[in-house]
């Protein structure tokens, strides 16, 4: 049986660890609220932009863009969105597992795809497994991520897509549902599978005047020029939205993981406390028997 | 007329104005007054001059779209900054971007260093053997 001192030491160590996990839980909780707020703040922009694109595309049914047309796939680029740091429960691993499962079935060799890793963990994962990376440097997924942080790589993959270097760009990210549920999502970024801008139902997609007529916009300089400017922007915006979702999922996942770690530590301390009490009682009993034995001997 | 500037962080600017002048690298310069015909345009890098009662405020835009309808102008921008002078506002935006990239590089370096140290310490402490 471990000595009293050993047990006390373990209790203290566990207690200290639980204090850290508790602090991390609270930090993640507040970061999660912040991440949720940024998702909400981003929504009006995303909505407006897709409406503008609907308007542009509705002017002429012939109007199109390479990003709206699927082509034969020779090479695929996968964007994997992960976190920079660990201790986030199964957050990163789930994404990587889903990705590996997908490439096992969809590809025959590693030369059929390239990886764009967002976050330290994804970067290390790709390196470890010997996948080809499109980004030479790590791209951090900061808590306060901005467009400028991943602009070099977004410019690069858009160029690669338009020049035909890659024919499809998929994203693996975590979809934030609530604090307890986050799902790994696999989505195609470009080409847009079903054109989300073309108004098939005739409802809501394009702007209308008060009398219910379609608003006739003037395009400066021309609809196709505007479309070519806005399509890449739309794609980058969509990716940004996914990163925000992932960020919220990361904090939620870390929060849950840290909560259970704190709970586990509490349970462990309780068991250790019992052991400690038993050891103490044992020591007292031994002392008593010694005293009684001693006094018996004197008598 | 009303002008609203949307950025990823939310609404940056929402004011009633007399008129605006939009200037961009790709599309040149044009003004929008009250009751202008519905218009959609883009701004790659440029600024919007916002005028009200003779007072002028500039908003610099990087990667944006502009849409005018019913005397309301919506500007969607990936990055934007409002300032009293277009050059200083642009400078500010550029400095912020530059500093941000620099900070990112520094963070990456620090992070890799810290990770290396952690690995060494784990090895030293022989944590896996206990």
What are the key terms here?
heterodimer; A: 299 residues; alpha/beta; Pyruvate Kinase, Chain: A, domain 1; four-stranded mixed β-sheet; 58% helix; 11% strand; B: 130 residues; alpha+beta; ATP Synthase, domain 1; seven-stranded mixed β-sheet; 1 helix; elongated
Topology:
The complex is a heterodimer of chains A (299) and B (130).
Chain A (H helix, E strand, L loop, with lengths): L3 H55 L17 E6 L9 H16 L6 E6 L1 H10 L17 H17 L4 E9 L5 E9 L27 E3 L2 H76 L1
Helix pairs in contact in A: 1-5
Chain B lengths: L1 E6 L2 E7 L2 E6 L3 E6 L5 E14 L2 E15 L2 E12 L2 H40 L5
Parallel strand pairs in B: 1-7
Antiparallel strand pairs in B: 1-2, 3-4, 3-5, 5-6, 6-7
Overview of the molecule:
The complex is a heterodimer of chains A (299) and B (130). In chain A, strand 3 and strand 4 (182-190) form a beta hairpin. The mean pLDDT of chain A is 89. Chain A has a single domain (28-255), classed as ATP synthase, F1 complex, gamma subunit (Pyruvate Kinase, Chain: A, domain 1, 3-Layer(aba) Sandwich), CATH 3.40.1380.10. Chain A has helices spanning 4-58, 91-106, 120-129, 147-163, 223-298; strands at 76-81, 113-118, 168-176, 182-190, 218-220. The longest helix of chain A is centred in the last third of the chain and has 76 residues, at 223-298. With 299 residues, chain A is α/β, with parallel strands linked by helices. Helices cover 58% and strands 11% of the residues of chain A. Chain A has a four-stranded mixed β-sheet with strand order 2-1-3-4. Chain B contains one helix and seven strands, in the order βββββββα. The radius of gyration of chain B is 22 Å and the shape is elongated. Chain B has one helix spanning 86-125, and strands at residues 2-7, 10-16, 19-24, 28-33, 39-52, 55-69, 72-83. Chain B has a seven-stranded mixed β-sheet with strand order 2-1-7-6-5-3-4. Chain B has one domain (2-125): F0F1 ATP synthase delta/epsilon subunit, N-terminal (ATP Synthase, domain 1). In chain B, strand 3 (19-24) and strand 4 (28-33) form a beta hairpin. The longest helix of chain B has 40 residues, at 86-125. Chain B has 130 residues and is α+β, with helices and mostly antiparallel strands. Chain A binds chain B through residues 38, 41-42, 44-45, 48-49, 52, 55-56, 84, 120, 137-138, 140, 142, 146-149, 207, 215-221, 225-226, 229-230, 233, 236-237, 240, and chain B through 6-11, 26-27, 30, 37-42, 44, 63, 65, 67, 69, 74, 76, 78-79, 97, 100-101, 104, 107-108, 111-112. Strand 5 (218-220) of chain A pairs parallel with strand 5 (39-52) of chain B.
């Amino acid at each position: 049986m471990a000595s009293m001192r050993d047990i006390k030491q373990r209790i203290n160590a566990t207690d200290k660890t639980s204090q850290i996990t508790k602090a991390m839980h609270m930090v993640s909780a507040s970061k999660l609220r912040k991440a949720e707020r940024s998702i909400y703040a981003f929504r009006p922009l995303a909505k407006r932009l897709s409406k503008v694109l609907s308007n542009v595309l509705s002017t002429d049914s012939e109007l199109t863009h390479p990003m709206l047309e699927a082509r034969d796939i020779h090479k695929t680029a996968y964007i994997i969105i992960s976190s920079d740091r660990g201790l986030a429960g199964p957050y990163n691993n789930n994404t990587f597992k889903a990705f590996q499962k997908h490439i096992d079935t969809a590809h025959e060799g590693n030369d059929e795809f390239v990886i764009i890793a967002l976050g330290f963990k994804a970067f290390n994962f790709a390196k470890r497994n010997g996948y080809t990376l499109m980004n030479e440097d790590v791209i951090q997924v900061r808590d306060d991520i901005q467009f400028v942080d991943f602009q070099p790589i977004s410019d690069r993959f858009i160029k690669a897509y338009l020049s035909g270097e890659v024919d499809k760009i998929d994203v693996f990210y975590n979809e934030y549902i609530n604090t307890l549920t986050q799902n790994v999502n696999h989505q195609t970024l470009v080409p847009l599978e079903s054109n989300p801008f073309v108004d098939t139902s005739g409802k809501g997609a394009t702007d209308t005047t008060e009398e219910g007529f379609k608003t006739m916009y003037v395009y400066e300089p021309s609809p196709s020029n505007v479309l070519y400017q806005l399509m890449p922007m739309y794609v980058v915006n969509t990716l940004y939205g996914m990163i925000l979702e992932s960020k919220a999922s990361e904090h939620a996942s870390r929060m849950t993981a840290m909560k259970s770690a704190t709970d586990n530590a509490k349970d462990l301390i309780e068991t250790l406390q019992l052991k400690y009490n038993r050891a103490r009682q044992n020591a007292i009993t031994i002392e008593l028997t010694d005293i009684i034995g001693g006094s018996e001997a004197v008598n | 007329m009303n002008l609203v500037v949307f950025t990823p962080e939310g609404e940056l600017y929402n004011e009633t104005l007399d008129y605006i002048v939009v200037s961009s690298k790709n599309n040149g310069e044009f003004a929008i007054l009250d009751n202008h015909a519905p218009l959609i345009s883009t701004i790659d890098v440029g600024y919007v001059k916002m005028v009200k009662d003779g007072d002028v405020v500039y908003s610099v835009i990087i990667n944006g779209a502009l849409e005018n309808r019913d005397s309301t102008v919506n500007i969607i921008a990936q990055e934007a900054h409002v300032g009293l002078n277009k050059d200083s506002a642009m400078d500010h935006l550029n400095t912020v971007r530059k500093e941000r990239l620099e900070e990112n590089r520094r963070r990456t370096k620090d992070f890799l260093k810290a990770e290396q140290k952690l690995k060494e310490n784990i090895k030293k402490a022989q944590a896996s053997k206990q």
